[in-house]
User: What shape does this take?
Amino acid sequence: MLTKLFLLFLIGYCFGQQQFGQQPVPPFLYGASQATINSFHQLAQTFQGLPEADIEKRIGNWINGQSAGIRAKYAMMRAEEKERSRWREAEQAEMAAKLSPAAQAAERRFSAIAHDPRLTPQEKYQQTMQFENSLSKNVVDEIDQMFQNQMQQHQQQREEHHRSVIAKLSPAAKAADARVSAIDRDPTIPPQQKIQQIQKIVNSLPQHVRNELDAAMRG
Assistant: This one.
């Protein structure tokens, strides 16, 4: 199954690129050459109408033909997201157990849609929205509150981890992280522009600073 992070990228690509001409860059290609990014964009244009399982197969075939660095970043992204998914699903199940019976049933339906590999990213988005629109406001609000609480907990955990990691970096790596963080937290910058600006910063860094930041994030 595709990671939720990458599934969101695919939905953004299929909808955003068609409607606004935007071409987002997946996380494992941050810092890659423009030729490699263009190659992936050409591949992504073939995703339209394909179920998730077929998209994953095409991505895997493309990844196998890339450099060792890109293959490693992709494998790391998949492994990290799978690990996060395991504890996130366990945490979500614990939180869902506190919902009303109607909200529990709705949450199971949302989960079934999200985990169905036969659906295309667009179909998952459409079915999720259609099902949400069929629910009462009380049920939607109850589920939304559960996810908001979960997201707040995760954000606090990420910030604590980030602070502990950054404290160990060299001055050059700390300065680079500060620049990236400032862009990431700026609410006035559209998401696609954030990606472009962050990628520009990463590409301008000396290789040893990139390596230091990569190692810190993996740790």
Q: What stands out?
A: The first helix runs from residue 4 to 20. The two ends are 24 Å apart (CA to CA).
